[in-house]
């Protein structure tokens, strides 16, 4: 159940109660595609850095290790040793990302596994079954994520099919949650708004899916090739048509600036691989912009990644040492950068929640976005 605590303009500060704990929103979900954050990050680490929600991928867990095996362990929470909320995406994004290996039909999608090429069929019912086997806190409806550059006719047909799939997901989840051997009989379902960059299609789709009275609503199919301005325009148009009393989730977004802008437009949930992926390549986030620790200017820099940061990396290690680890290809360097970035994102959300509660979000947004643009020369 979602409780809206306060608003500051469109920015929402809420709590989302689940069987695995209450989520304070706005929230950034840390992406652990196959049940782990890439970069040697453990579930104990996730607790240390303030993670509220872990996100895993239905398709990837299905093709490697297998959801039936994970069900035998009592579900994904027990399998990975994590007792807080987990959101599983539906596999729908792989319809987009594996475009060369799939065929879309009304009943679902025919895939070839990206691992060994074996044939897979996944439709709404199969996606719900896999996610039920995983026992996640929140399951995402199965959808198609069309290219933002697809033509209007394709987008409209895709959205209509996604709506029909959503109705089938809802029916199947109700059935699965009622079974005696279900891992999590309180599993929640979020629907996904699609429509590319066609605002009118997006709005009509939002009106249709909100009538299904789901646990939450996501906006998908953004951050896949459109400009930031196009993304913000779609949010301005669509969010007002999604239920304010339910959480709104912007899928796969994004940079710290993207998140700050989207919160200002009424978004509650976020996820993105940026903090872990960039961390593995030595790129770290600060309130004064992003740093590349491979840069020679950090070779003798005794400061932490960011002054005042309480993450496991900044409490102990210098930029110079972490750069040394990265250059020497020591896994610890990658791990420390990932931990810092995830801590930065998680605690940026704390700052966002505090600013909304204090009704000073516009001021926070302005000063924080300006801080991200600090000239790099200041780090010399």
Write up what this structure looks like:
- With 380 residues, this protein is α/β, with parallel strands linked by helices.
- The protein has two domains: 271 residues, Alpha-Beta Barrel (TIM Barrel); 101 residues, no CATH class.
- The chain contains 14 helices and 16 strands.
- The strands form four sheets. An eight-stranded parallel barrel has the order 4-5-6-10-11-12-13-14, surrounded by four helices. Strands 1-2-3 form a three-stranded antiparallel β-sheet. A three-stranded antiparallel β-sheet has the order 7-8-9.
- A hairpin with a 6-residue loop joins strand 8 and strand 9.
- Helix 7 packs parallel to helix 8.
- The radius of gyration is 21 Å and the shape is globular.
State mean pLDDT (0 to 100 scale).
93
The profile of the biggest β sheet is: 8 strands, parallel, barrel
Strand content: 15-25%
CATH fold node name of the largest domain? TIM Barrel
Distance between the termini: 49 Å
The topology string of helices and strands comes to EEEEHEHHHEHEEEHEHEHEHEHEHEEHHH
CATH architecture of the largest domain: Alpha-Beta Barrel
User: Which word captures the global form?
Assistant: globular
CATH superfamily of the largest domain: Queuine tRNA-ribosyltransferase-like
CA gyration radius, whole angstroms: 21 Å
Q: Class of the largest domain in CATH? A: Alpha Beta
The helix tally amounts to 14
Structural class, please? alpha/beta
Helix amount: 40-55%
Describe the strand arrangement of the main beta sheet, using strand numbers.
4-5-6-10-11-12-13-14
Please provide the count of β strands: 16
Low-confidence stretches: none
Number of domains: 2
